[in-house]
């Protein structure tokens, strides 16, 4: 089975795949100070909890937006799983044509999202990954990654708002009952959540127009996708494992 790892700024998301069927999924906090041994114990513990061991892992593939962790993760894979990990980076086969001006600037998680979205749902399509940052990706009908947009994630926006103001309190990130809030907390929730839904809708509308595809399918992933999708009329598919499925597909194209 293939262990896919998506190393993000906040969490490392992991899934064990047999084909494209996930057997277990878990998350571990991204910590630049952890050693390869600490990560190794954590990963083995998570797998054992689901009834699997190191011997069940025949391959490992990862994407990362945190370069300082990469060496530690690679070291962990060799020592604890006896596997040379595959890293998604420029030059790897993806099955899509990347039309970025400088492909080396493109995050490997966005590449994985594009691969999975195109192969599983067809093109033209748009990916939205609700992570620490929210990233949009536009994929043409011919399987070309054309670019997209990046904006602050919901949590990041909420934290910036309360940290940069003297009197606004911290608040739970959840959908308010109404747009017209009657308390300061409800006002904050309305502005962040409903404002974000409006931002997503407008960006999708613009990207569809520039793609020349008013019906381009929108596939959302990431931890906060569910919060937005409930009130959004532009999100067609919720796929929480989109990035990890893309990594698994990329592994299959390069495993020889």
What's the arrangement of secondary structure elements?
Blueprint: E1 2-7, E2 11-18, E3 21-29, H1 36-49, E4 59-64, H2 67-81, E5 86-87, E6 97-98, H3 108-121, E7 125-130, E8 133-139, E9 144-152, H4 154-163, H5 184-211, E10 217-221, H6 225-229, E11 237-238, H7 242-254
Parallel strand pairs: 1-4, 4-5, 6-9, 7-10, 10-11
Antiparallel strand pairs: 1-2, 2-3, 7-8, 8-9
Helix pairs in contact: 1-2, 3-7
From the alpha carbons, calculate the radius of gyration and give it in angstroms. 19 Å
The beta-strand count equals 11
CATH topology of the largest domain: Nucleotidyltransferase, domain 5
Biggest sheet descriptor: 6 strands, mixed
Question: Helix/strand-derived class?
Answer: alpha/beta
Q: Overview of this structure, please?
A:
With 256 residues, the chain is an alpha/beta fold. It folds into 2 domains: 2-87, 2-Layer Sandwich (Nucleotidyltransferase, domain 5), CATH 3.30.420.40; 99-247, 2-Layer Sandwich (Nucleotidyltransferase, domain 5). Helices cover 39% and strands 24% of the residues. It is built from 7 helices and 11 strands. The strands form 2 sheets. Strands 6-9-8-7-10-11 form a 6-stranded mixed sheet, sandwiched between helices. A 5-stranded mixed sheet has the order 3-2-1-4-5, with helices on both faces. α1 (36-49) packs across α2 and α3 (108-121) crosses α7 (242-254). The two termini are 15 Å apart.
